[in-house]
Amino acid sequence: xxxxxxxxxxxxxxxxAAGATAQEASYDVPFVPTPExxxxxxxxxxxxxxxxxxxxxxxxxGRIVINAVKKFGARGIGIDIDPRRIEESKANAAKAEVSDRxxxxxxxxxxxxxxxxxVLTLYLLSSVNLRLRPTILSKLKPGTxxxxxxxxxxxxxxxxxxxxxxxxxxxxxxxxxxxxxxxxVWEWTMPDVPNGGKCSLKVxxxxxxxxxxxxxxxxxxxxxxxxxxxxxVQFTASHRNNNGxxxxxxYSGNVLGNSFECVAKPESxxxxxxxxxxxxxxxxxxxxxxxxxR
Length: 294
Hints:
The protein is of the alpha+beta class. The protein has helices at about 1-20, 35-45, 65-70, 85-95, 125-140; strands at about 55, 75-80, 100-105, 120, 145-150, 160-165, 170-175, 185-190, 200-205, 210-215, 220-230, 230-240, 245-255, 260-265, 270-280.
């Protein structure tokens, strides 16, 4: 079924390119309606709520945005470059009586500003997703939910994915939470630590995962399980206590710009709160846009 669906989409793209007018030929993605069951899966996976601002890039006939507003009470913005789709979306929103909470804009999705989105929905192509990925990771707030129908983000693995069948056709829905940029070197001081209490954490970040080195006084500790979910950063490291014994310590905190508000909780003993500051010269871009589609 999956091969059949890919073939159908490929044929639609070819037909679209062959029969398009000069204006239509500039469109990156042909209009293929998303089945209602897939729409519901996308919105439920993103846990859409009434306080959300949902952007749908390549909104087509507006069904995703309209459902988000009608069923969940969110505010919605649909973006499409095709004026016919925009008019159709507006008509559908009026029919559903939700026009007061929706905007439809005829814009190029690569040029539109969707930085205030709390939920972003996509039914594009993998190549288009990859072109959008650097913007998603650099412009959207940490914690923003991103959902894509059928097409992935290459090396940026989804936090969750769902497979479903509708009318004999296989669909994939991918879900991501935009991670904070926790890359670089973070420095702080802690009491009862040798070398003047100096501590640091060097993070090499790969989307929502990371690894690095934690330095506590004179001790360097490899860290391999750094997890970044929104602005929350968590990892575990085993280092020596005041008695020289190695104990696991769980670190959990929030990245707010160049500050990291964290608590270190040893397996036994009292937790320690600290605030680390990042050396801004060590900050790295999460996505250079050079990765290939998988």
